[in-house]
Design brief:
Blueprint lengths: L1 H13 L4 E5 L4 H9 L3 E5 L1 E4 L2 E4 L1 H9 L4 E5 L11 H10 L5 E5 L12 H7 L3 E6 L12 E5 L4 H7 L7 H12 L1 H14 L1
Parallel strand pairs: 1-2, 1-5, 5-6, 6-7
Antiparallel strand pairs: 3-4, 7-8
Length: 196
């Protein structure tokens, strides 16, 4: 949560009146944080198809043609559960303004069928800011551990956040323990995905 808020604060700092494209259906706190940071919100849509929701790509393309400063996507998106393919993410990233940001909220990473590494994503989308959390995959919701990975064109964001990011010793120890046991968590996540 704090990492996303830092992204929005950065948008406000570097571009007065920044426009951020957010999903019309999704985590309500996106809207609250963006409004608190005085970032103007534009919405893109999801379409309902029987019991699933899928991204309305034309609504994103419309916003990208309007020259939004940043596009935030969740993959998989809460609470809809749908993911956005790497191919579509790359396409959207390339259509952003030259200095625009592709913000990918991967809080639920590990529960999607995404085969692309973070390293590959930032290579393919140098304007990307990927936000991840230990809350879901590692079950550490109350501990508030997360991290951000940026592509080369988004590194100025990290300079902005350098003074804001940090964690306490207990959180750091828990995070390291989870990373060491990552393979066990993959087994749990696989069981959960298979039960859907």
């Amino acid at each position: 949560e704090q990492a996303l808020k830092n992204v929005f604060l950065h948008l406000k700092k570097v571009r007065h009146g920044s426009r951020l494209a957010l999903p019309s259906m999704g985590w309500d706190h996106y809207f609250t944080m963006a409004k608190d940071c005085n970032v103007r919100i534009r919405h893109y849509n999801y379409e309902r198809k029987k019991f699933e929701f899928s991204l309305n790509k034309s609504s994103i393309l419309h916003l990208l043609n309007e020259k939004v400063d940043a596009l935030l996507i969740g993959s998989p998106v809460n609470p809809l559960g749908s993911s956005i393919s790497h191919k579509d993410q790359m396409s959207f990233s390339k259509k952003l303004m030259p200095d625009g940001y592709m913000i990918i909220d991967e809080t639920y990473h590990g529960f999607a069928n995404d085969k692309h590494s973070t390293k590959q994503k930032i290579h393919d989308m140098p304007n990307s800011i990927i936000v991840r959390s230990f809350s879901k995959f590692y079950g550490l919701a109350g501990i508030r551990i997360g991290y951000v990975v940026c592509g080369d064109k988004a590194r100025e964001f990290m300079e902005h956040c350098r003074v804001y990011l940090g964690m306490n010793t207990l959180s750091e120890m828990l995070g390291m323990m989870c990373i060491k046991k990552h393979k066990e968590f993959v087994k749990y996540a696989t069981t959960i995905k298979n039960e859907r």
